[in-house]
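=== RUN LOG ===
request id: a7f3
mode: sequence -> structure
chains: 1
length: 129
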Amino acid sequence: MVAERGEEGVATVRELTGGDGTHAVLECVGTRPAIEMALGVTRDGGVVGRVGASQYTDVPMDFGTLMRNITLTGGVAPARAYIEELLPGVLDGTVQPGKVFDRTIGLDQVPDGYRAMADREALKVLINP
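=== RESULT ===
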């Protein structure tokens, strides 16, 4: 993960990958700048997967992006389908939710968690009931 966003973030990822960009990128329910950055860091011939319920319908797949042979795919993440199976393991600590959660909050702090994600102070917030 890089801390920079926008063109600065694209430049950082390009530098880290020797100028090539990444083979695959996940854009996970971000804002329009998130999909723009995802397309910017994807190497020619790479794939961008949009997962989750999009916050907007238009995607900047212009002629220049098309000529880079980038594949755009995705769909709504079926998270509810996995809750019964996975949530008990997360709650008892046998399943580690991963590095994507960088902040844990209680139920009474949910508005603060959403605000932290919107302000880019947190990537994803885990709610601990």
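=== NOTES ===
Residues 108 and 129 are 9 Å apart (CA to CA).
DSSP finds five helices and five strands in the chain.
=== END ===
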